[in-house]
Structures
1.
Amino acid sequence: MTERPDAEFLSVRGLSVGLAGRHGTGRVVEDISFGIQRGEAFGLVGESGSGKSMTALAIMRLLPRVATTLCGEVIVAGRNVHKLSEDEMRAVRGGQVGMIFQQARSSLNPLMRIERQIIRVARLHGQTDGKARSSDFVAHLLREVGLPSRVARNYPHQLSGGMAQRALIAIVLAARPELLIADEPTTGLDVTTEAEIYDVLRELRAELGLTLLLITHDLALVSQNCDRVGVMHAGHLVEIGDVEQVFERPLHPYTQALLNSVPTLEGETNAALAIEGQAPRLSELPPHGCRFINRCPYRMPKCADAFGPIDYEPGHRVLCRLYD
Amino acid sequence: MSVATDIEVPRRLLLPSWAKGLVGENGLLVGLILLGVVVLAAIFGPLVVRTSPTSTAYGVYLAPSAAHLFGTDDVGRDVLARVFYAIQLDLQLAAVICALATVAGAVIGLFSGFAGGLVDLVVMRLVDIMMSIPAFILALIVAIMLGNTGQTMVLAIALAYTPVAVRIVRSQVLSLRELPMIETSRAIGTPASRIVLWHVLPNTYSVLIAQATLFLAWAILDTAAMSFIGVGIHPPTPELGAMISEGSQGIVSGQWWVSIFPGVFIAFLVISFSLVGDGLRDYLDPRSRR
């Protein structure tokens, strides 16, 4: 399949993921669609259990055994991921889509020097050969993530949390992926280190044209680092749009509540508003209709019926009956 | 690795706390020095003390003297010369037993831990059954059933130790495969076979090597114990346990040296291997290598 130059690098169409539980299968990701252009930074936000990470794992075809992709397709660089063989998929993992997780240190092999982990990945994806060039290659990669070249000779336990995350990014970049999925990459790091990691990611995007899918619960990080944002709630992609659109004109009551829950300096009161109630349990998800219905101040009878996303303005789409 | 520390190592033959207190933090060093002395003595001793281990020409039951440091036995053979050869033989037997049990345990444990499900269930129940029989008794029965030779004894003892290694490797695999490291590695396109070879197996080495050293200690003791009761290595081949057995009649009539000296060396070997095994377990923990 040839790829049109203006096409999205990653395109998710109607993806649903089922999670087998004690009370049958729950749809933890339900009919979500979004696309990421080359070079774009896309933020996927939502609270714990909203299906952000499951979406990422479904893109990589790395879902745990209890979860399965029920329907929908994932297109990476023009190819449907679910139609690839396991061998072809391995080339996509790492080679086209890299992924970093929180807890960078435990993502590294404690017995291998950073250098060796970088070279192993590079060899796996045919990015380096020959002993002479490999040390240059390692030093170059470490420089890209802002680490001194001596780190090459270090073991993971000798690195700080921030350095470990940078080292992990260097290892993932050794395969020269075009899209980087960062799943809560700075959870557990202090704010200064967090800011440094995002500086690195921003530089990498500028220098390498890296496409970024950032998964986080932190709205501020999305507004600072992303071009577009998708808001997830209980497996639904409730709102998607440019960062300016969503942050200035939040449409979905959940997005509005999320933004209200962030304390601001200008606000009249100091109180950050909590969203009432809890996200529905897996076993209690309604079969169709809005999943925010029990917590929504604007709920209407028709919200319980099945409905699809509504285009509010170009690029800004919402899953809410207020905008019918 | 935190996963390395929560493994239950069978307490059999670990040193009592007072003995550990005696050597303190230097257990590994003390063990290695003790071991080095015994092994070097066994290898180079015959070059220095040029008495024959097989000649019966020295006179019966001679007490230890300058000519025969450990005395002579009931048929007039030099005990020291026989001890040298016995240590060499026992070390070789222990090494083979240890290698067989460790490799078999690692392979089965890796397989069982990764396969999971029914395979894992069956393997682990077999391990439970085998471990419910004391290793020595199990090895004894199997060795006799297979024909009571040196080879069958080695196989039988290795078989009896294998479940211990299987259990250790499997429990390591179970905790290792849940680490973010494995998911990260999959997400970067590493084939499953490489993940096992690069990330899982090497991370079991620290516990496995420590256990292998303890296998050596157990093997010395069990080989000697079997030969003592007439299974495996038979007289006149010099073997420490067989020598104790041969000299045991002499103890009551005052010829203590024929049994005591081989016994002392069994103790030396077992203690030094235990010290090394215990010490290695701490030393190989990657966190202690800062």
Note: Residues 100 and 315 of chain A are 28 Å apart (CA to CA).
2.
Amino acid sequence: MPEPQEPAIRLTGVTRTYGSGKGAVRALRGISLAIPSGRFTMVVAPSGSGKTTLLNLIGCIDKPTSGVVEVAGRAVARLSDNALSDFRARTIGFIFQSFSLIPVLSAYENVEYPLLLTGTGAQTRRRATLEMLAAVGLVEQRDRRPNELSGGQKQRVAIARALVKRPKLVLADEPTANLDSVTGAEIVTLMRRMQQQSGTTFVFATHDPHLIAQADEIVAMRDGELAQAGDIVS
Amino acid sequence: MTFKIALRNIFRNARRSLTTMLTIAVGCAAILVFAAYALYDVYVLQTTAVQRGGHLTVYHKGYFDFGTGDPAIWGFADYEKIVRLIEGDPVLAKLARVVTPVQFLGGIAENPANGGSRTFFATGFVPAGQTRMESWNEYGIGARLESNALNGDPSQGIIGAGFARYMGLCERLHMTDCPKPPKSAPTRESDVAGLPRQDFSALTGPAAAPKTPSIDLLAATAGGAPNIVAMKIGRVERQGAKEMDDGYVVMNLTLAQQLVYGRGAHKATGIIVQLYRTEDIPAARARLEALFASRRLDLEVRDFKEINAYYGQTLNFFNSMFSFIAVLIGVVVLFTVSNAMGTSVMERVEEIGTTRALGARRSAIRTQFVSEGAMLGALGATLGIALAFAAAWAVNRAGLVWTPPGDAHAIPLKLYMLGAPAVTVAVWLALIVAATLAALLPANRAAKLPIVDALRHV
């Protein structure tokens, strides 16, 4: 296991409030934390405690109400929308609970898509895509569209899509929630193996005990605040 | 990839896309079929006008505005020299198909057999020139238009059906659909109506019973004296407009000159120039005007659109109709595509959130949906062109006939699809632009979706 380096993510006094006035919902209440690079970090919390909000802020798809979010050493709050898009395209891979593959693209094209966003050349793109499909064991299924794949295969494609551009950070929100336990366990093993191979920082929001069991680090949350891991994970 | 995603999404919801494309296609076909119909009509009108009066007419300067009421005094004596001048010009020789003099005149006509009389408006042609003019068919109009060509007999002419009715010639000319005046019709018993007949008889000498029906034509000569000639009726040709039909006379130029100029020097009111191609009008006109200016000839040139005001009016009518239909269909396309794209955006909110999270810029999302609208427009418009050609093919073979405005004879109803490729291309492009614009609003909405909300969308 690689030694912890500079934090991949640093949050300082981060709050996120939805709405205003009496109806305002404070999803995050002054979170300060550092997530180390190259680790398998789990954000664990009961439902509604703000773990998805935290992941959204780290993933630069949402902005904090206050506080500073630094990802890969860069404060992202003041970046323009285009700069944030480019930053995400280069730096962050996403794995979603519902797979979120583009339905009109084949498995190959779904994996290739992030490379197109980064302007990678055709030859490199093809090589990297096939390598990643091979790594997740889906070379044979590369021409299939998402509706022709099983849940586990879809999530493998999603993992390949998240890793194909060799991002510094992969965020996965409940990646096993829509899979049966056997497939979920396979996916956890696969992600762990790929994380070890690539040294990429993985941050999960999860309830899945199989996944939590693989954690290098655990960030526990309750009611929008950090909590003791022992309070959350039994 | 953006275009690939856009194209595949069109086929993703095939039924909705097909409905949208069919709406565009039917709209496109409707515009093109109307354009083809209008174009054919305009070409028929133009062909009729050019066959009868050429593209350009040379008059004495001022005739067109001030002389049509008294064409006899506006004739020019050296018309044959001018005809030769035009024919001999190297530029005009390449452009002009027919150069022929013409004499316009008006007067009073009488049927010596029964005393029927009325005013007439006549044109005197050189039969050879007129016959050649009638063979002009630049647009390959399938219809065989009514011929008003004179035969070689200088004493024979052609009259309108209404004119024949006034002259009481229906029976002698074996005309059907030619009513007789009611018995209660008022007549003039003892007024000047009788005078012309007596005067005509005096001028023409004792009337013999001709085998071919004939009429006497009385007109004032250029010098102001009354003159009369007898004209045999070679043929009756019904005209579209009643006021024209009731006084229509076409005669040999020699006979017209004999009537207008008597024993004096024969002149012509105009010289008709028929070109090979209508598009050469500006060049030919400019050349004629330069030629006349260089020789200090006091002549003016008018084109057939100025002379036949109804042609321009018909053109304007069709243009306004075309614009109205095009705008109407454009609005339908706008709403249909906008609605289809709006639904598509709503169905793909999560997909939009995913692609944005992966790093696609807002502009990429916008481009994707706008491309989708443009592709729907392109596919629909292309299908529409195919539909229009199919409709034209069917109509052109159905044997339908109709009577154009201002004409008295039914002609085949044709759709001239190949007549204006620029219109087809313009309609195709306009519909794509309309579909693209229609997609712009939903595309902007898609591009501006907050990523987090889009990812949460179920």
Note: Confidence is low (pLDDT under 50) at residues 190-199 of chain B.
